[in-house]
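Field log, afternoon session.

UNIT: design team B
ACTIVITY: writing a sequence onto a fixed backbone
BACKBONE:
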């Protein structure tokens, strides 16, 4: 443990929240730690206080409540993949979880951590000496975005793989903050600002993800990355259609936030893809080039629509 490092193992949500408020200027919640610890090692996240929440049992449950399925924020990706209800009702979510990292990491990484995964960029997610040598960017107190040369905006990419599928399933999240709880649509927490990718306050804690069980969804997931394991996404696409024919599209990896749009039927495919292409702010901050990733948005979305159309027939 580093000098002057404060570590607190929370007994319950109330304990975690009280400690967070007491150290609101300099702390991080830690559960699986698969994202946080790597960023701390690289020096891209610096904090002197860690609040360990991984043993809070109420956040580790998957349970049905009325017409909804509540997935605790501390459910690991491996547990998510093995749950019989999720396997039956939401197979695309299982597929998305399976695409994250490696089997060993999925036994530790949590669903809450994945939807709040830090935005990434090949110019930022490097060691301290590498960043110092190439020059600091906006995300680490530099003066320019190295990927674009601009001085006003950070375009670090949104890399959660489970979030696009959850968004297509109309998921909401329950958040605890300042002694209150609120429920919000998952897609509404993302800002599009690479420097502060989500709207949650420093002391906010995600308690669970809520997915409706009283709707019938068909959802397709596609992912582009250099290797079938380990690598973060270069492009994630998810498309769903419900029993009314309503279509929802969510795309990650090509903007600081997920690109989300909806249509009334699968026949609106071309218009929906055109919208995503227009809204995606793809920059050269990935292993693949900007032109290739833009091309693959069209390719992967058409594959999603084709699979959904074949299932409809």
């Amino acid at each position: 443990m580093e000098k002057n490092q404060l570590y607190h193992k929370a007994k319950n949500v109330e304990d975690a929240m009280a400690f967070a408020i007491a150290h609101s200027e300099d702390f991080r919640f830690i559960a699986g730690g698969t994202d946080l610890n790597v960023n701390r090692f690289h020096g891209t996240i610096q904090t002197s206080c860690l609040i360990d929440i991984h043993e809070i049992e109420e956040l580790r449950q998957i349970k049905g409540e009325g017409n909804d399925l509540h997935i605790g924020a501390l459910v690991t990706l491996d547990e998510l993949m093995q749950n019989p209800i999720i396997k039956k009702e939401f197979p695309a979510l299982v597929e998305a979880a399976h695409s994250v990292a490696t089997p060993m990491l999925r036994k530790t990484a949590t669903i809450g951590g994945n939807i709040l995964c830090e935005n990434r960029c090949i110019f930022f997610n490097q060691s301290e000496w590498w960043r110092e040598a190439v020059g600091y960017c906006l995300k680490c107190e530099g003066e320019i975005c190295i990927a674009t040369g601009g001085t006003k905006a950070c375009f670090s990419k949104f890399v959660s793989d489970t979030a696009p599928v959850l968004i297509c399933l109309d998921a909401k999240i329950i958040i605890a903050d300042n002694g209150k709880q609120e429920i919000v649509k998952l897609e509404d927490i993302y800002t599009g600002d690479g420097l502060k990718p989500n709207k949650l306050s420093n002391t906010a804690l995600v308690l669970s993800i809520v997915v409706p069980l009283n709707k019938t969804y068909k959802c397709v997931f596609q992912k582009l990355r250099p290797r079938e394991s380990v690598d973060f996404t270069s492009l994630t696409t998810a498309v769903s259609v419900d029993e009314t024919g309503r279509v929802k599209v969510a795309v990650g990896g090509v903007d600081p936030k997920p690109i989300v749009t909806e249509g009334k039927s699968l026949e609106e495919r071309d218009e929906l893809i055109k919208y995503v292409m227009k809204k995606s702010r793809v920059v050269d901050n990935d292993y693949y080039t900007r032109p290739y990733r833009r091309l693959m948005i069209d390719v992967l979305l058409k594959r999603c629509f084709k699979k959904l159309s074949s299932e409809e027939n």
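LOG NOTE: The radius of gyration is 19 Å.
NEXT ACTIVITY: expression trials, pending approval
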